[in-house]
Amino acid sequence: MSSFQLNISPLKEPLGFIKVLEWVSSIFAFATCGGFKGKTEIQVTCSKPNETKTITAAFGYPFRLNEALIQAFPDANVCDVNWKNYVLIGDYSSSAQFYVTFAVFVFLYCLAALLLYVGDTNLYRDSRKLPMIDFVVTLVATFLWLVSTSAWAKALTDIKIATGHSIVKELPPCNQQEVTCSFGSVTSMGSLNVFVIFGFLNMILWGGNAWFVYKETSLHSLSNTSASHSQGGIPPPSGI
């Protein structure tokens, strides 16, 4: 029976080194989105009395904008409108949560794989099942990084639109003659753009690592054996 013995030499090889990069990159992937909080501001001008006030709507992960209440301080009523009855438009929680949840699972898988690499390298390489499982997971993860990141990139674009200048057109009170609304500002979403970048970076890392994981599988061993047999096989008998 094999026992756990720390051996960092696999981390110096592409198989282990890239897995470390995948582990670190997955942390940045879910951390940059999970803690995001922002707000959008609108300037509201009343005809009677002639005054301008600021109303805000706070939003953040998981980006259920349809639950982000419009708030006005210190009085909730501005221009005889109770703004607490209005919210932003859109629910993008499915894309955001899918991305974050998947990134967390990737983080845990990379951690488990690294423990196996450095703790019992012989068990991994002497087994026929473990490298094959690792290879299949790598291919599936590559595909899911593409799907989840693409879905989040589309959702982020819609979030920017829903919290940007178009918000003035979507709020019913802003279409009244007595009320004039103008877009004020919105929290920078640069960190969410990084969120997308790390998603595609993870896809590239996992796609590139598929080859090195494949080399550890029995499929690669069989292909090498077949190639050696074809090159060094028994020559055909000579003619009479």
UniProtKB/TrEMBL annotation:
Topology versus the membrane: Multi-pass membrane protein
Pfam families: MARVEL
Principal place of residence: membrane
Keywords: Glycoprotein, Membrane, Transmembrane, Transmembrane helix
Keyword Transmembrane helix (UniProt): yes
Residue ranges occupied by any MARVEL domain in the UniProt entry: 10-218
Top-level taxon of origin: Eukaryota
Localization of this protein: Membrane
InterPro entries on file: Marvel, Synaptophysin/porin
GO cellular component, one term: synaptic vesicle membrane
Transmembrane segments: 96-118, 130-148, 192-214
Signal peptide: none
Family under the similarity heading: Belongs to the synaptophysin/synaptobrevin family.
The name this protein goes by in its record: MARVEL domain-containing protein
